[in-house]
Design a protein that fits this description.
This protein is 4% helix and 39% strand. By secondary structure, the protein is mainly beta. It has two domains: 66 residues, no CATH class; 37 residues, no CATH class. The chain is flat, with a radius of gyration of 18 Å.
Length: 110
């Protein structure tokens, strides 16, 4: 006898608390501050839901959930005064020249 189970847990937005509260760390578009819930699905049908522990930012473009601390605007005037520093084109963090991928957002630097 064989049994196949198709299911998993995913995060879904329960309530938007503030629209445009930050920037996505992956694609750079606006992200909303949300309360979320985790949903257990069995055979693509929601079976059980439970609330998330804290508020997160959610990007509607790439469907990414991330903590608000990561979305802090890192492009200050002191950063803009350093043109010779290698920066990630997505998250604008300063990156060492020997890296091939950004250690902050994971995107390719080439």
């Amino acid at each position: 006898m064989f049994f196949f189970f198709v299911g998993g847990v995913e995060q879904q937005v329960r309530q938007v608390l503030k629209y445009g509260a930050g920037r996505c760390i992956t694609c750079g578009s606006k992200a909303d501050l949300v309360e979320y819930e985790k949903v257990l699905k069995a055979f693509f049908v929601p079976v059980w839901r439970w609330p998330g522990k804290e508020q997160l930012l959610h990007c509607n473009d790439c469907n990414l959930f991330f903590p608000p601390q990561l979305s802090a605007d890192r492009t200050t005037t002191a950063v803009a005064d350093q043109p010779d520093v290698l920066r990630c084109r997505f998250c604008k963090e300063a990156v060492e020249p020997e890296f091939r991928f950004c250690p902050f957002c994971g995107s390719s630097l080439s």
